Automatic annotation (TrEMBL):
It comes from Acidihalobacter prosperus. This is Bilirubin oxidase. Keywords: Metal-binding, Oxidoreductase. Pfam families: Cu-oxidase_2, Cu-oxidase_3. The keyword Metal-binding applies. It comes from the Bacteria. Residues 53-160, 395-499 form the Plastocyanin-like domain.
């Protein structure tokens, strides 16, 4: 396997809380360039470079239009878009518009492969509510290592609703995107991927990054602060809270605003889930706040098997320091109501999914760790992830030439997802935003009542979803449903469906 298992000889020990020595990078925005037909053009290039994930250490990484991560794409609702996606890597990749309601042929899943040196030019229109979406690679069996190498970015849909409501909306000032990720580095600062047996349960690191920097600080104005939170980690579940246990308000989930703000003191965020929160800093000028993950206070039994856990699943670690300055002069507030509550009528087919666990486990362990699928990542990082023997859906592993499910266009499907495995799984569906109808027969929590595209299904739990499908996906370019623990997805915990 690539990457050394030696101790962190040249890197500061992250067990010491509160480094906060470097400013938070805010991704630049791309608004698109309009042509004569008012089509907005966006260009991204996947390539490599050096980054300082940890202060004083240079690490080889991948990114879009730079060495790490990518720009924030600002997209107006309902406008035609032309994307130009160039592959400057030495391996094939794809680019998936996570959370976007687009036809299967431009979804960016495993069937939209971009070979080295090629350019993919999908045309699409995002006619859906404003929300915090993201983009990332989605090649079959290699999604985990490519995202881990640094390929990801925000995709924000605008419809003017946040301005009308008086929400903070000055990008990078009082409206800040935060991509939260964990990574593991060797003593030379190289990314280490899948070099320990517990990594089979999902790749977790011991360095905690926000927008690609370990424990940064952000200068923010006194007033209402909007944070767009993305769990961009491969496998780690975060339980986000402030160190002083202060209250904050969730105003949006994965794919749009909630009916009304929800006051919380902690927020569980699974891989690929997003949330927008408002924090009241009106009386905090001159003070500092710390955003952290307190996994010790998280819902128990998220990881039942010891191999699924590590020391940081049971502990607490700091992520970001907010340094509050003077007011910005912007007039913003927390509205009592946001949007009308979404409703759906289940007029489409029903289907039950079962998330299966530990299938063929002994066979995998006997066959050796990190089986045959390998490729070179940045700095020689191995991209081998093992065979398809761990987790499955309905007893099947992902097969590129098999359609597992068909659903009719223009109908709302009623899906039930049951988790019979030994750990929690974030279940993601392409091509739609869905509503959670129930968890084990009970209504969802208030902060989960809006539009979503990822739902965390805990061990032994059954979650009911209502999923409308407004775009086609044929057998040549089907949609995916899968676990968004990326190593599970790459190992085959994924299926394909058409919408016709």
């Amino acid at each position: 396997m690539g990457g050394s298992m030696m101790e962190h000889a040249t890197i500061n020990d992250t067990t010491v809380p509160g480094i906060f020595s470097r400013p938070l990078p805010v991704p630049p925005q791309l608004h698109g360039k309009a042509d004569a037909r008012s089509v907005l053009h966006y260009a991204l290039r996947a390539g490599g470079g050096h980054s300082k994930l940890v202060d004083g250490v240079r690490t080889l990484t991948w990114g879009y239009n730079g060495a790490l991560l990518g720009p924030t794409l600002r997209v107006p609702r309902g406008k035609p878009l032309q994307m130009w996606i160039a592959n400057g890597l030495g391996v094939s990749t794809t680019l998936h518009w996570h959370g976007a309601q687009v036809p299967g042929e431009v979804d960016g899943g495993p069937h939209n492969l971009i070979t080295p040196g090629a350019v993919w030019t999908p045309a699409l229109t995002l006619d859906q509510p404003a929300g915090t979406l993201w983009y990332h690679p989605h090649p079959d069996t290699y999604t985990g290592p490519q995202v881990y190498a640094g390929l990801a970015g925000f995709l924000l849909i605008d419809d003017g609703e946040d301005e009308r409501l008086g929400l903070p909306h000055t990008y990078g000032v009082d409206d800040i995107p935060l991509a939260i990720q964990d990574r593991r580095l060797d003593g030379s600062g190289r990314l280490v991927y899948m070099n320990r047996m517990p990594d089979m349960m999902g790749m977790k690191g011991d360095r905690f990054l926000v927008n690609g920097v370990e424990q940064p600080y952000a200068q923010v104005p006194a007033g209402w602060l909007r944070l767009r939170l993305l769990n961009g980690s491969n496998a780690r579940i975060y339980n986000l809270a402030f160190a002083d246990d202060r209250e904050f308000h969730v105003i949006a989930g994965d794919a749009g605003l909630l009916e009304q703000p929800v006051a919380l003191r902690s927020l569980l965020l699974a891989p690929a889930e997003r949330a927008e929160i408002l924090v009241d800093l009106r009386l905090e000028q001159g003070r500092s706040l710390v955003l952290r993950s307190d996994s010790s206070a998280a819902v128990p039994d998220l990881y039942r098997m010891p191999m699924a856990a590590d020391a940081y699943d049971r502990g607490r670690f700091d992520l970001l320091q907010l340094r509050v300055g003077s007011p910005s002069g912007q007039t913003t507030h927390l509205p009592a109501r946001l949007i009308a509550a979404p409703t759906l009528l289940a007029d489409g087919p029903k289907h039950d999914f079962t998330l299966n666990g530990m299938m063929g486990m002994m066979g995998m362990m006997g066959g050796g760790f990190g089986g045959g699928r390998t490729a070179d990542g940045p700095g020689g990082m191995s991209m081998g992830i093992g065979g398809r023997d761990l987790f499955a859906i309905d007893g099947h592993y992902m097969r590129m030439d098999v359609i597992d499910l068909k659903t009719p266009l223009g109908r709302t499907a009623h899906w039930r997802v049951r988790n019979s495995s030994t750990m929690a799984h974030p279940f993601h569906v392409h091509g739609t935003s869905f509503l959670i109808r129930s968890r084990n027969g009970n209504p969802p929590s208030a902060h989960e009542s809006g539009w979503k595209d990822v739902v965390l299904v805990r061990r032994g739990e059954t979650v009911e979803l209502l999923a409308p499908f407004h775009h086609r996906a044929d057998a040549k370019h089907p949609y995916m449903y899968h676990c968004h623990i990326l190593e599970h997805e790459d190992n085959g915990m994924m299926g394909q469906f058409t919408v016709t």
